[in-house]
Amino acid sequence: MIKHKEQRVGVLVDVSNMYHSAKNLFGKRVNFQEVLKEAVAGRKLIRAIAYAIKTESEDEMPFFEALSQQGFEVRMKELQIFAGGQKKADWDVGIAVDAIKLAEKLDVIVLVTGDGDYLPLLNYLQNTKGCLVEIVAFRQTASSKLVEEADDFINLSDNKKYLR
């Protein structure tokens, strides 16, 4: 895929998806600064948004501040805990809505997630909005259909610089 410096790029990061993938696969954390640099690839960054889940603990605040200092707009959502103890938190709908709203102003949308739930969004952005959609994720935890349908795929498992 040809990437040229005039392309307007938006990078949308599903922080929880990436965090758990890196932790489960490698016992490490994601180097989001390197991921952002790779996703932008010398093009015009218009927006970089990191979607995070906030738990009761305060020890994640330095992480959120670091994301902000690395150039991400950080959006936070509280972890929901239901009466039966079940926990739920995801940004799927929020990321999809933002991607659709931003599509008019972008040539390329980079989704940093391997979640197959984004397949309808990817198809909509490509076929209705005319955007290129690139996926950045760990191959082992990425939906094969998402990878197949994307205009480009960057496998974070290929280089240790994406981990810390």
Task: State the strand order across the main sheet.
Answer: 3-2-1-6-7-8
**What pattern of helices and strands is seen along the backbone?**
EHHEHEEEHEHEHE
Distance between the termini: 28 Å
- How much is the average pLDDT? 94
Shape: globular
Total helices: the number is 6
- CATH fold naming: Rossmann fold
- Amount of beta strand: 25-35%
User: Quick one: CATH superfamily?
Assistant: 5'-nuclease
Helical content, roughly? 25-40%
How would you sum up this structure, described in words?
With 164 residues, the chain is α/β, with parallel strands linked by helices. The protein has one domain (8-162): Rossmann fold (3-Layer(aba) Sandwich). Helices cover 34% and strands 26% of the residues. The strands form two sheets. It has a six-stranded parallel beta sheet, sandwiched between helices. Strands 4-5 form a two-stranded antiparallel ribbon. The radius of gyration is 15 Å and the shape is globular. The model has no long low-confidence stretch (mean pLDDT 94).
